[in-house]
Amino acid sequence: MLTKHYYFAYGSNMNKERMAVRGLSFSNPVKGVMRGYRLAFNKKAWDHPARSYANIVFDPASHVEGVLYRLDDEHQIQKMDPFEGAPRLYSREIFHVETQQGLIPSWVYIANKATISDGLKPDQWYLEHLLAGREHLSESYYQKLTLVETNG
User: Fold this and answer.
1) CB 24 within 8 A of CB 15
2) If both were cysteines, with which of 77, 98, 118, 146 could 33 make a disulfide (CB 3.0 to 4.6 Å apart)?
3) Where is the Gamma-glutamylcyclotransferase AIG2-like domain positioned along the sequence (predicted)?
4) Dist CA 49 CA 9 (whole Å)
5) pLDDT of 80-129, one tens digit each?
């Protein structure tokens, strides 16, 4: 499998409709898991100081669930960079994502340190995009997402 053809979404891009609106061509979205990381809502929104977006942080005892997209070609990921503010707000890195087919090297966006702040909450509309990925999440992980405190 080619590394440049996979993208792991753990935030709002778990919503397939959002991905389509953003112009990405993909097929076969599947459940993906990143071990040794946890989901955090600590990425400051550039346009609203009290709003946060999803990020992942190192945590050896945890894991992040999300949607692994097989991109139609290696250039599709470049369409995501403007939406993620890469490379300024998020960096795009390669991580191994666990799937039923084994580990797949995939693109993953991680918030840059200068954009991280504790004590932030996502807006409810943003959290709804994460919840839209339900079919690719375990029930316990989905339920945990429903309990995330939002700005309303």
Assistant:
1) no
2) 98
3) 7-115
4) 24
5) 999 999 999 999 999 999 999 999 999 999 999 999 999 999 999 999 99
49: pLDDT confidence band, cut at 50, 70 and 90? Answer: confident
Separation in Å, CA 34 to CA 58, 85, 131, 134: 10, 22, 18, 17
DSSP track, 75-139: TGGGGTHHHHTTTTSEEEEEEEEEETTEEEEEEEEEE-GGGB-TT-B--HHHHHHHHTTGGGS-H
The yes-or-no verdict on residue 2 having pLDDT over 60 is no
- Per the CB < 8 A criterion, the answer to whether 52 and 121 are in contact is yes
By C-alpha distance, which of 16, 18, 17 is closest to 30? 16
Task: Map tokens 């997209």 to a residue.
Answer: 69
Long-range contacts of 86-95 (CB under 8 A, 24+ apart): 87/112, 88/112, 89/43, 89/46, 89/115, 90/43, 90/115, 94/3, 95/8, 95/34
Distance CA 7, CA 58 (A): 19
pLDDT of 143 strictly over 90: yes
Average pLDDT over residues 46-63: 93
